[in-house]
Specification:
Blueprint (H helix, E strand, L loop, with lengths): L1 E5 L5 H13 L4 E5 L6 H10 L7 E7 L4 H8 L4 E6 L8 H8 L8 E2 L5 H13 L3 H29 L2
Helix pairs in contact: 1-5, 2-3, 5-6
Length: about 160
């Protein structure tokens, strides 16, 4: 199971893409609002009990100062994937990207692109799929479907160029 957390309900539109990707790949998840700044006790409890609750990976999205992924990573040994969210109080998203990306040695957070929750969902599934052959097989099928899409686009390009 994957934990998907975000600092605010306004982050849900972005973070839903991680949930949708996990659903597509058949990976269970839970989703909650956990603010590093407004509910620090809840954040600590969430991170410290994640493994006992059966979580294998945590995907944490945050905008602005974006402390949630790093603070959660400091409290658990589970892999944490950070999703920088371009929020209304963001400096074009750069504050979120750098807050999540620039972690100190010993507290890693895997960081995806700005608003890149879909890739966070895929990465979470890949971590689980490394040990779960069913999820691994679904990921193989997903990657094969990506190849087919590119081949179709290539054919379409060549057909339109021939005219």
């Amino acid at each position: 199971m994957v934990g998907i957390i975000m600092g605010s309900l306004s982050d849900r539109k972005v973070m839903q893409e991680a949930a949708d990707m996990l659903t597509e790949l058949g990976v269970a998840y839970e989703m909650d609002i956990v603010s590093a700044h407004r509910t620090p006790e809840k954040m600590v409890e969430y991170a410290k009990t994640a493994r006992d609750r059966g979580l294998k990976v945590i995907v944490a999205g945050a905008g602005g100062a974006a402390h949630l992924p790093g603070m959660v990573a400091s409290l658990t040994t589970l892999p944490v994937i950070g999703v920088p969210v371009k929020s209304s109080n963001s400096i074009d998203g750069w504050d979120s990207v750098l807050s999540i990306l620039q972690m100190p040695s010993g507290v890693p957070v895997a960081t995806v692109a700005l608003n890149g929750a879909r890739n966070a969902g895929i990465l979470a599934a890949q971590i689980i799929g490394a040990f779960d052959p069913i999820v691994g097989g679904k990921l193989t099928s997903y990657k094969e479907a990506l190849k087919v899409k590119v081949d179709e686009m290539s054919r379409e390009l060549h057909q339109s160029s021939a005219i």
